[in-house]
Amino acid sequence: MKINVNNEVREVSASPDTPLLYVLSDELHIKGPRFGCGLAQCGSCSVLLDGEEIRSCITPVSAVTGHSVTTLEGLPAFYAAEKKLPTVPALHPVQQAFIDEQAPQCGYCYNGMVIKAAELLSHTPQPSEAEIRSAMNGHLCRCGTYPRILKAIEGASRAMTGALK
Ligand code: FES
Ligand code: FES
């Protein structure tokens, strides 16, 4: 089976019902998405599928054939394509904002938080605090860094739109 991950067509040998997360991690050695709950409850395994966040722990690999998967590793290139930038930045603005705000503590939730925030800002460049809280609701941080994550997303929004706040 062939799947498109981060703009590369990859041949994979896993059975069609294998969760995408296992294929990314074990077969393609892409380590951004992480196993947390395995039940679509925490968000640590999130990736983008045609720009929309999905939980790779419950998505069979067969479901992504013919679509584009973007992982944390491919997020800067995804952003460059979305904004038609001449070059690919080292980091997506959300990744940079998470560093600037020192948002993660242990970092386990970081993958899903960044993927979801990137999806949110793609659809809603200047979300209200309530919209950010609502969008991020299904992403759990066991370290409780939610206030810093909120600030980071607001910072990324400003960076991406040039907004003053
Ligand atoms: S590991 Fe997929 S949502 Fe928790
Ligand atoms: S920083 Fe530890 S789970 Fe979020």
Number of domains: 2
CATH class of the largest domain: Mainly Alpha
Distance between the termini: 48 Å
Strand order of the largest sheet: 2-1-5-3-4
Task: Please identify the structural class as seen in this structure.
Answer: alpha+beta
What would the principal axes of the Cα set say about the shape? Answer: globular
SSE series: EEHEEEHHHHH
> Which fold does the CATH topology of the largest domain refer to?
DNA polymerase, domain 1
Q: Which ligands, by name, code or SMILES, are bound?
A: FE2/S2 (inorganic) cluster
Write structural notes for this entry.
- This protein has 165 residues and is of the alpha+beta class.
- The protein has 2 domains: 2-72, Roll (Ubiquitin-like (UB roll)), CATH 3.10.20; 74-161, DNA polymerase, domain 1, CATH 1.10.150.
- The protein has 6 helices and 5 strands.
- It has helices at residues 20-27, 75-83, 93-100, 110-123, 129-135, 146-161, and strands spanning 2-5, 8-11, 46-49, 52-55, 68-70.
- A 5-stranded mixed β-sheet has the order 2-1-5-3-4, covered by helices on one side.
- Strand 1 and strand 2 (8-11) form a beta hairpin.
- Helix 3 (93-100) crosses helix 6 (146-161).
- It is globular.
- The chain starts with a strand and ends with a helix.
- Residues 104-109, 141-143, 145 line the site of one FE2/S2 (inorganic) cluster (FES).
